[in-house]
Amino acid sequence: MNRRLIVAALLVAGQSVALGCRHVGAGPAAATPGNQVPPAAAPVILGPGDEVAISVWRNTDLTSTVRVDPNGNISVPLAGDVHVAGLGLPELRATLVERLAKYLVNPQVQVNLTELRSRKFHVLGEVRSPGTFVLDETVDLWEAIARAGGFNADANRRFVLLVHNDGGVGRVAALNLEAFLAEANRVPVGLIQGGDVIYVVPTRMASVERFMARLQNMILPLVAAEGGIILGQQVKDILEGKHDGGTGVLIAR
């Protein structure tokens, strides 16, 4: 039996699966809770949502702390807009030195990572241990839920919501996990990306409208979606039981 089937079977049985997970904030003493930096052996690659502190020796007016926007850019005094997604800290420093050298003599630039959002994902809702986890390896939906302890007794396993930052807009997909489990050998389960939010909905909800409003307020800060979160009519119909969704992924447009 392959790893995915083992994880899926344990989830359905309601058991907690330990897959070597690390909660954000469990890193070295220099990291504050929620801002864990990966182990030294793993080079930091910047992405949307990450935050860096930039300082230039003897130029305190150029000191700034900036967050990478959804398009992968930062704005730095004198250096202008810099595309940093995919860069490591040494590469970013070299880029800034090159740009600032047009205005300063031998600029001494220091770049420090202050928050790493692009390598984290969140599992919320009806799971045993909801929280934020480090994306330290390839993780699919089953394993992500397993890291949160698996489903609790109130979980609706038919439809799990997956929220992804798509160019500054939070896109919501509703996935039928019962169908995925039934066809586990043939239906791929999506891989989790940095910043994703997985929300396991309850079996019963008093008001879909109130639930959707609460979901917006809870998830928006996590996905750093400047354009808000799109919960389309298709997702609403699924939550209200008007749409079956089959085995596919339904993305709200």
Provide tags for this entry.
253 residues, alpha+beta, Outer membrane lipoprotein wza fold like, wza like fold, seven-stranded mixed β-sheet, three-stranded antiparallel β-sheet, 12 strands, disordered C terminus
Order of helices and strands: HEEEEHEEEHEEHEHEHE
Number of distinct helices: 6
- Write down the overall mean pLDDT: 75
- How helical, in percent, are the residues? 10-25%
Structural class: alpha+beta
Q: What Rg is obtained from the alpha carbons, in whole angstroms?
A: 21 Å
What top-tier CATH class of the largest domain fits best? Alpha Beta
- The total count of strands amounts to 12
**What is the second-level CATH architecture of the largest domain?**
Roll
CATH superfamily of the largest domain: Outer membrane lipoprotein wza domain like
